[in-house]
Specification:
Distance between the termini: 40 Å
Structural class: mainly beta
Number of strands: 11
Length: 124
């Protein structure tokens, strides 16, 4: 089992930055990919970014490229999502997820473990 705990969400104005953290514990050696997803009210959960624990491959939703950066600290078993130039349309609950299989997945159903989510609200 893998446990994921997100932190760092909040209420901010458009244009500012936030950094989300995801602390992983348990059998993290069994996971290959760490991802961030988000879900806005009335919408499907969508992929935002993903990274391999090796850090060699990064993946992003097109609309966040250039604004969001995913990174990891293996020593701390923590994955980060640095979000710059936030927009009101970035408002959502952000979830951290872990995938055991090696092949990349952009679908929420491809991930095996989930955190509880952290709310990000961006006001205009």
């Amino acid at each position: 089992q893998v446990q994921l705990v997100e932190s760092g969400g909040g209420l901010v104005q458009a244009g500012v930055s936030l950094r989300l953290s995801c602390a992983a514990s348990g059998r993290t050696v069994s996971t290959n990919l760490m991802g961030w997803f988000r879900q806005a009210p009335g919408k499907e959960r969508e992929f935002v970014a993903a990274i391999r624990w090796t850090g060699t491959s990064l993946y992003y939703l097109e609309s966040v490229k250039g604004r969001f950066t995913i990174s990891r600290d293996n020593a701390k078993n923590t994955v980060y999502l640095q979000m710059n130039s936030l927009k009101p349309e970035d408002t959502a609950v952000y979830f951290c997820a872990a995938r055991s299989r090696d092949r990349m997945s952009y679908s929420w159903s491809g991930y095996d473990y989930w955190g509880q989510g952290t709310q990000v609200t961006v006001s205009s």
